[in-house]
Specification:
Layout (H helix, E strand, L loop, with lengths): L2 H13 L7 E4 L3 H15 L6 E4 L2 H9 L3 E3 L9 E4 L3 E2 L5 E2 L6 H10 L3 E6 L13 E5 L4 H10 L3 E4 L16 E6 L6 H9 L4 E4 L1 E2 L5 E5 L4 E5 L7
Parallel strand pairs: 1-2, 1-4, 2-3, 4-7, 7-13
Antiparallel strand pairs: 5-6, 6-12, 8-10, 8-11, 9-10, 13-14
């Protein structure tokens, strides 16, 4: 059982939540790419008609290439469902997201959704957030130096994310920098999220402490379903 096959199992489970006529929020990442491919198959077969809101340029390009309609992210205040991936998932369904750099727009879609469904392979499960992944922090370029100092004061070790295939740092779809901050212990993700966002120039973090309603975990046995007591947010 490969990691790709595990991701596909999770994506197939999430696809069952998509209903005809809905506007669907779509996240960013390799597992979401598999979900988009499965979604496109149903649309092409005439089994589904939907519109989408995208969290990144990359996702928008993939959706349109698959023949799916993409609306402007700011045009809809509420969606029934958003499907996204994660870099880490803890036992309370708190998340670290942002390996793809789209976490600001992903959080907009998460907050707009009545239900946020997360799809991951089993390697993304951790006992405590920060075990494997740093916390991405999107900052205004003019705030880079001061935000770096403040994150250090909070106990983090921030590193400016560098681009691949270009010289210099990653530039987000919003025109900003990303600091990847490693924290030795994240005992309260919600508190850390608030403290980081209180730093002038910080726009958003990759901490999603309470947004996820359902997490599908693809594994060698099939799919595990993790859920909060309330499976919808609104």
């Amino acid at each position: 059982m490969t990691v790709t096959e595990q991701k596909r199992r999770a994506a197939e489970a999430a696809l069952k939540h998509v209903t005809d006529g809905m506007t669907l929020g779509v996240g960013t990442g390799s597992t979401v790419d598999i979900f988009i491919d499965l979604l496109a198959e149903k649309v092409a077969a005439g089994k589904l008609s939907i519109r989408t809101l995208s969290s990144s340029y990359g996702t928008s390009h993939r959706l349109r290439a698959a023949g799916l309609a993409v609306d402007c992210l700011g045009s809809v205040a509420t969606v029934s469902l958003t499907v996204d991936g994660a870099d880490e998932v803890d036992p309370q369904l708190a998340l670290i997201k942002g390996g793809g750099g789209a976490f600001l727009r992903e959080k907009i879609l998460a907050e707009a959704a009545k239900q946020l469904v997360i799809i991951v392979d089993q390697s993304k499960l951790v006992k405590q957030l920060g075990t494997k992944s740093p916390v991405p922090v999107e900052v205004l370029p003019v705030a880079l130096a001061s935000a770096t100092v403040r994150i250090n004061q909070l106990g983090g070790s921030p590193v400016l994310r560098q681009g691949e295939g270009k010289a210099g740092p990653v530039i987000t779809d919003n025109g900003n920098f990303i600091l990847d901050a490693k924290f030795p212990k994240i005992s309260d993700p919600a508190e850390l999220d608030l403290r980081l966002k209180a730093i002038p120039g910080v726009l958003e973090t990759g901490l999603f402490p309470d947004q996820a309603n359902i997490v599908y975990v693809g594994n060698e046995r099939g799919v595990s379903r993790l859920a909060r007591q309330s499976e919808t947010r609104k």
